[in-house]
Amino acid sequence: MTPEFAPATDESLPIWPVWKDDPIPPQAQAGDWPERCGFTGASGETCLLPDGQGGLAGALVGLGARDRADRQRFGFARAADLPRGVWHLAETPDGFDAEQAALGWLLGQYRFARYKSAPSPAARLVCPDGVDAAKVQAIAAGEYLTRDLINTPASDMGPQQLEDGARDLARALGASVEVTTGAALLTANLPMIHAVGRAAQDAPRLIDIRLGDGAGPALTIVGKGVCFDTGGLNLKPGASMGLMKKDMGGAATALGLLKMLAETGAAQGRRIRVLIPAVENSVAGNAFRPGDVLTSRKGLTVEVNNTDAEGRLVLADALTLAAEEKPDLMISFATLTGAARVALGPDIPPFYCDDDTTAQTIQSAAMQVADPLWRMPFWAPYESLIEPQIADLDNAPSGGMAGSITAALFLRRFAEGAGRYVHLDIYGWQPTAAPGRPKGGVGQGARAILAALPRMLA
Q1: Residue 297 appears among annotated catalytic residues
Q2: Are residues 51 and 164 in the same domain?
Q3: Of 30, 66, 88, 126, which sits most exposed with the smallest number of CB within 10 A?
Q4: 364-402 pLDDT, tens per residue?
Q5: Could you give phi then psi for residue 250, rounded to 5 degrees?
Q6: Quick count: other Cβ atoms within 10 Å of Cβ 433?
Q7: Residue 71: how many other CB atoms lie within 10 Å
Q8: How far apart are the C-alpha atoms of 248 and 155, rounded to whole Å?
Q9: What is the mean pLDDT of the segment spanning 46-68?
């Protein structure tokens, strides 16, 4: 589906957003109707207003408490809550962000209908006055792409299908694509991508997209594309394997961000590269094993103490390749560690960055656009945890402590050479429906990076 606003019409009905426990706007002329209906303005509440002649005069939509940090509150105004037709925002209360409301509406309308028919949203919104409709629709379209890719099961979203999706996007944006597949990865000196993916029937590959040229500042985005993760020979339990179609959430977010950058105009004057190591971590006689020592593109050796810590291995070769061009800014997105979710839960991905100015810019932008991130440290004293006895690096330090930090430190070893490096350890999944975020695949961090980019790459 395509996220679109409705054209303005004289027949559209008004929506009054209301903070919890605030007075009903007098323009709504609702009398005691909302009170009789039990409407309090709580997040998710909707109250339809009669016109006294058997029709509708409009609707009230609850925003919840002002002092809560709920995101995309207006995204709860779904088609299920409002009758079919065209709606517009009436006078809005203080502290109400019309652009975020418009985006929340579009994100809340998302449906994944590839395998099961889902009715199109019946209620449509006119873009609020003063809001750039094209920009908001482009951001929503990038998020829709990310969600579609993550929600598609591995039977239809293996490395080949992820490549197909990347090629379709590149074609639409006028970008170039090069793909290195199978044994050619060894010739191209990308050995760890090959090692992780060689046991799968769908060959491992590196997808390399370039958009823009010239002398503008360079941004390289690396997205983890593990299309399904069995855990390899360190096989995951069944319950842990159930969501592993989302282990390519980093790649999906990278592609969604590329679409946002191009279609909002943020890519103009910049050189953008997207690298996606696309593999399936499978079990077969030629699978890489616990105890193996792999030699990376960078020349560093890595002892494999857990084949289920494969994402950092494929990212390592891609980051090394990316850093060789010395981009001004390099960003990696990866569904990398369960430790990040234990620390911060599913809603707040940690990010890592050594440059304080860049980190503060990202943190500020994340809060501004309601795409929360939380800075975590590249804690140097933990470097010894990723240094085993018989190789340069350990892909899975024992002990289980600081798992997200040690994974980030591992990646940083391969990002040396880039002007600045930012790593986001995302979850990529919405466990329960929330405003603007139906249950299922979800992008995290892309809108924050989009908002921060003008200051990071001036």
Answers
A1: no
A2: no
A3: 66
A4: 999 999 999 999 999 999 999 999 889 999 999 988 899
A5: -65, -45
A6: 15
A7: 18
A8: 13
A9: 90
Separation of alpha carbons 225 and 275, rounded Å: 10
Partners of 279 in the beta sheet? 226
Domain ranges, residue 67: 13-109
Q: Helices 249-263 and 133-151 meet at what angle, rounded to 10?
A: 160
Which residue is catalytic, options 246, 312, 420, 437?
312
* Tally of residues, the chain: 458
Based on the fold, state whether residues 101 and 152 are members of the same structural domain: no
How many CB atoms are closer than 10 A to CB 302?
A: 27
Which candidate in 20, 111, 236, 375 is catalytic?
A: 236
Q: pTM for the whole thing?
A: 0.96
Which CATH number goes with the domain that contains 40? 3.40.220.10
Residue 123, token pair as written in the block:
């209620």
| SS3 state of residue 25 | coil
**d(C-alpha 16, C-alpha 77), whole Å:** 11
Within-domain flag for 117: no
The answer to whether 236 is a known catalytic residue is yes
Strands 421-425 and 329-334: parallel
In a shared domain, residues 195 and 69:
no
- Rounded-to-integer distance, Cα 179 and Cα 176, Å: 10
Largest CA distance in the chain: 82
CA 85 from chain centre, in angstroms, equals 31
